[in-house]
Amino acid sequence: MEKGRIVLASASPRRLELLASAGVEFDVCASDIPEEPIPGEAPADFATRLARDKAVATAARTEGRWFVGADTIVVCAGEIMGKPVDEADAVRMLRKLSGVSHEVITGYAVYDRERDGLLCKAVVTKVVFKPLRDEEISAYVATGCPMDKAGAYAIQGGAAYMVERIDGSYTNVVGLPLCEVVEDLRRIGAL
Known about the structure:
Layout: E1 6-8, H1 13-21, E2 27-28, H2 43-59, E3 66-76, E4 79-81, H3 87-97, E5 101-112, E6 117-129, H4 134-142, E7 163-167, H5 170-174, H6 178-187
Parallel strand pairs: 1-2, 1-3
Antiparallel strand pairs: 3-4, 3-5, 5-6, 6-7
Helix pairs in contact: 3-4
């Protein structure tokens, strides 16, 4: 499927697995940018800004033609939830998500170094959690799984049973809206 050199600007094993599952050939070069929202920044703008910054920063330090950056956040009752800072934060996040609807937003960006072109989009999926008991939350947090996940959960892992329903892209909740990303890569000539 390769037409040019695509670089995934992410260390996320979930993004790597998703992109590879679509038959896309790519290299990986993790980006390291600050992930702090600007005061007043809308959640989708925050996620797409981080995705753009990851793609462009990676392009500045490695070879390639197209650079794909992505960032996933969870938004619940107006709070942007990134990765928990510690176990207590993970417990707090899961308690807040318990029994309510929230949004998972993944911003993604594709930077074309040759044309100096940039495509940025955000994909939103609505997720509803079942009401969670404190012992369920404690047991899940004790696994360590929530610690590197936005909103402190992985739909594809131990938290799958917590999800009553989703409206939108499942792969977006995992960390990369695969349908949209692959279609955009095709549309711009990367695939």
